[in-house]
Amino acid sequence: MQTNFRLAYLIIGFSDHGSYNNSDICIYRNNKLRDGYIDANFQIQFDRSQDCQLEKRNRNTFSFRRRLATCDPYDIFLESGTTQFILAGGYEFSRNFNSDNVMKMSIIFEMKFGNLFQTDSTQVLEFESAHFKILADGARISHDVTTYWCVIKRIPVAVSRQKHHIIQIMPQIQKGNEQLVHHMEVFMCESDDQVEYSGKCDSLARFRNAQTCSHVVAAWAMGEEPIFYPPEAGLPIGGVDGKKYLKVEIHYNNPARLVDIRDDSGFDIVITPNLRKFDAGIMELGIIYSDANSIPPNQASFPLTGHCVADCTMKLSPAPVMRFEISSANHSAENLVPSLCV
C-alpha cells in the first residue's frame, strides 16, 4: 500500500456481505498493525487474536500477512472468488465507523471488489459441445435495496428434439455490476405452457404456469466459481420427453440505492449431445422459504427442523448415490455469524 501523503491511520478490511459493519479489518496506526473488526453498530473493536502480521514497513509503504483461515470468529475466511475490500484512511483516527463520521474524517473511504487469487476456471470441453445463454437482457435495477429479476426462455430447438447433457454452467456477470449481482438461480419449468418473459419476478404472478418453474438446476452466489460436472455425469436437458423452458432468477442487492442501472447478467450453459454414463440430479434438503420459518429477534439459539415424508424418501434410488457438489443457502441478520473451523 502506497500513499502520497502521511496518514494517521489506514484500514484494510474484508467483507463477505457488502456492508461495512460486521467486517474484518487490519488497522495500521503509529507504525503498528493491529487486528480488529467493525461490530454491528459500526464501532471498531480490537481483536483478542492478532492475526494481522506486519511484515515490512518503509517511509510510505508497508506489507503484511494474514492466514486465509484463522479459526477466529471475527475473521473472515479468505478464499477464491470475489472479495469485497474495505479501504479507509485519514488524519484522525476514530473508532466510530459510521459512514457519516468516516466521510468527514477520511481521505480514503471506499469498498472495492476483486479477486485475491487467480484461479483457472477453464476446463477442456468435449468435442461437439455447444452452449446457449439466458441473460437478463437489459434488466432495470431498481433504486430499492432488493430487486428480483426473472427471465423465462425456451431452450434451443435442437436441444428440445434430442436429449443432451449439461456439462458446465458459467455465470456471466456484466462488467461494472459485480457488486450488485448478489446471487442467481436456474430453474426448470415443469409445464411447457409458458410465455417467454423478462421482468420483475413479482409480475410473474399473472402467469399461472410460471409457478411450475421451481425445479432447481443450479445456483450461483457472489464469489463462486463456474459449475463443472464430473466427466462421467451430466445434467439431462431436452429430448422429446424433456422440459422445454428454463427460468433464471437474479437477486440484485443495491444498498447504495444507485439509479438508472441496466444489467445483462445471467448464465452461459454448456451442453453436449454425447451423453455421459450417468444422469446428474439435484436433491434439495431443508425447509421452505416462509415467514413461519424465520428466527425471532434476540435468540441465543433457535432450532429449525425439516422432515422428509415417506412420499419423498420412497422415490430414492436403492443404488449408491455419488455426491460431487454441495451448496448451502441461508440468510443471516445483522449480527455476526461465527465461522466453523475444523
From TrEMBL:
Domain of life where this protein originates: Eukaryota
Keywords (A to Z) from UniProt: Copper, Metal-binding, Monooxygenase, Oxidoreductase
Keyword Oxidoreductase: yes
One cellular component (GO) term of this entry: extracellular space
GO MF annotation list: copper ion binding; dopamine beta-monooxygenase activity
Pfam families found in the cross-reference section: Cu2_monoox_C, Cu2_monooxygen, DOMON
PANTHER family: DOPAMINE BETA HYDROXYLASE RELATED (PTHR10157), MOXD1 HOMOLOG 1 (PTHR10157:SF23)
Protein's name according to its UniProt entry: Copper type II ascorbate-dependent monooxygenase domain protein
Provenance organism: Dictyocaulus viviparus
